[in-house]
Specification:
The chain has about 270 residues and is mainly alpha-helical. Helix content is about 60%, strand content about 10%. It is built from ten helices and six strands. Strands 1-2 form a two-stranded antiparallel sheet.
Length: about 270
């Protein structure tokens, strides 16, 4: 894969991160984690010492391991959308296979798998898997459907696909469901490279993609619509609707903030 798609249809040229980049990012994260371990260990020892129980030290150690192996990685990956401090330092990010940002589900699978391939094997298993996989994936990436890409120095995003004028009205009225992961990327790459394809391959691939995308669109476009025009209209409409949703959410957030600002800063004490 030589590109990722974000926002369902906006293709970014970006290459999979090299094993060396991932190792360097991992070492930085380990250094940061060492500081966290010291802080948490001191806090855990202090709490356990105040608890009069023989099981307190064992419970404290288990809680510390759970936080370090699961809670912390999941939280960081979810909140930063796959860009820990080490990854940010070397200019890489973990994304879904379709190029979208990772969410809790992917972060959880990667962290859970990391207990074995990172912690128990000191990263050896993950390194070997990354070296043999064409996209540099470790086992957690394979199971979660993610991979690491370079974001520093990536080329500019290509111009978004636009809908043909004669299909704009139809696209606004049509019900266009979310396309499955990967399908939007394939359509976007096909539209960008259609002129470079052999005419026979272009017609065959355009027809196949049209049949797949048509399953998520109702009603279908007017009879005689060119397959490539149909595909372009669907991607453009999906992108327009997502931008509208983001705009409405931003407006709603701003209005909520203004409403909270108008509220009184204090609540008077009840009168007896």
């Amino acid at each position: 894969m030589d590109g990722i798609v974000t926002g369902e249809g906006v293709l970014l040229d970006s290459q999979a991160a090299s094993v060396a980049s991932r190792l360097l990012a991992g070492l930085i994260d380990v250094a940061v984690l060492a500081v966290v371990i010291v802080v948490l260990s001191l806090a855990t020892v202090g709490i356990a010492s105040n608890v009069q129980s023989d099981a307190a030290p064992a419970v404290a150690v288990i809680l510390l391991l759970v936080v370090l192996m699961l809670v912390l990685p999941i939280t960081v990956d979810t909140l930063t959308r796959g860009r820990s401090l080490g990854k940010a330092a070397v200019g890489i990010r973990v994304v879904r296979d379709d190029g979208g940002p990772i969410v809790f589900r992917q972060a959880f699978v990667r962290a859970l798998t990391g207990i074995v391939e990172l912690w128990l094997t000191f990263g050896i298993l993950a390194t070997i898997c990354s070296m043999v996989h064409p996209q540099g994936k470790r086992i957690g990436d394979i199971l979660a459907g993610t991979y690491a890409v370079r974001v520093r120095g990536a080329t500019k995003a290509r111009i978004p696909v636009t809908a043909p004028p004669y299909l704009v009205g139809w696209a606004h009225q049509a019900e266009v469901a979310r396309l499955p992961d990967g399908l939007a990327l394939t359509v976007r790459q096909f539209l960008n490279r259609a002129t470079q394809l052999h005419p026979t391959s272009r017609v065959e691939l355009g027809g196949r993609l049209t049949a797949e995308v048509a399953q998520y669109v109702q009603p279908l476009p007017p009879a005689g619509t060119h397959p490539e025009d149909f595909l372009a209209a669907v991607l453009a409409e999906r992108r327009r609707r997502e931008i509208d949703v983001l705009s409405r959410n931003a407006t709603r957030t701003a209005q909520d903030a203004q409403g909270l600002h108008r509220l009184p800063h204090g609540v008077p004490d009840p009168v007896d």
